[in-house]
């Protein structure tokens, strides 16, 4: 196995960090690595906001569901899907921008995710640990106002970065047979594969929590999908100029 694939397969979410500072020059290199990601039609629709202000950090940690590591990590970045600069580009060329299309929302969001994953991989290659923070969407209006985000920009997720102060196990992923299909979507054996995977995940949680958590993957997913999933997002995105048509 080559070192890149080995690095990818060793990913863990890190939520405890040492006090070792991270040079700003390294952050610049990581963001530049993010910029090197694939981008749909060269739109380059991601903006990254580094949060240094202590008050804002504390607010973001609270709004994200009291995730203390948002405040404690040496570096916290917010990745935003950004179509605002595209409006500026149209204005610069005396062209009317036709915005609000669902496809634009999808491509901007995908661009942002690809950018961020490049940052994550680059960070881990430098010995850093990361954890994504989707919880900033819990209070997305407040987050957007705190970051002065204009129309056609929304915060997709945050990312904590720092040198790890923990060494968690790698969380097992779904069997390859469930994920990789040939020529068409066939799921005749998926249930059995998932049942086998459930046993593996349950063992992982028992080991990780010293027996305090005994949950399978399918139990976790079925429980999660019985709850509303941030129903405020649609009205927020429409208000921001996305998903109009």
Automatic annotation (TrEMBL):
Domain Nitroreductase: 10-163
Record keywords: Flavoprotein, FMN, NADP, Oxidoreductase
Gene3D superfamilies in alphabetical order: NADH Oxidase
Coiled-coil boundaries: none
UniProt cross-references to NCBIfam families, sorted A to Z: PRK10765.1
Homology family: Belongs to the flavin oxidoreductase frp family.
PANTHER family (alphabetical): NADPH-DEPENDENT OXIDOREDUCTASE, OXYGEN-INSENSITIVE NADPH NITROREDUCTASE
Protein's name according to its UniProt entry: Oxygen-insensitive NADPH nitroreductase
Organism of origin: Neptuniibacter pectenicola
């Amino acid at each position: 196995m080559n070192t890149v694939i080995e690095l990818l397969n060793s990913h863990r979410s890190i939520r405890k960090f040492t006090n070792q500072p991270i040079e700003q020059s390294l952050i610049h290199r990581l963001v530049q690595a993010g910029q090197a990601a694939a981008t749909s039609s060269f739109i380059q629709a991601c903006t990254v906001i580094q949060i240094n202000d202590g008050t804002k950090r504390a607010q973001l940690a609270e709004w994200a569901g009291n995730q203390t590591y948002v405040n404690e990590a040496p570096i916290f970045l917010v990745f935003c899907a950004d179509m605002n600069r595209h409006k500026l580009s149209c204005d610069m060329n005396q062209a009317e921008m036709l915005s609000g299309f669902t496809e634009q929302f999808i491509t901007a969001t995908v661009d942002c995710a690809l950018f961020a994953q490049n940052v994550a991989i680059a960070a881990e290659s430098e010995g850093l640990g990361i954890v994504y923070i989707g919880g900033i969407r819990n209070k997305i209006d407040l987050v957007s106002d705190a970051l002065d985000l204009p129309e056609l920009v929304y915060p997709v997720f945050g990312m904590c970065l720092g040198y790890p102060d923990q060494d968690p196990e790698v969380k097992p992923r779904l069997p390859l047979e469930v994920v990789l299909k040939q020529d068409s979507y066939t799921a005749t054996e998926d249930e059995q594969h998932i049942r086998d995977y459930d046993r593996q995940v349950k063992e992982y949680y028992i080991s990780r929590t010293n027996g305090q958590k005994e949950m399978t993957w399918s139990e976790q997913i079925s429980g999660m999908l019985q709850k509303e999933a941030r129903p405020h997002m649609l009205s927020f995105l429409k208000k921001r100029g996305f998903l109009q048509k």
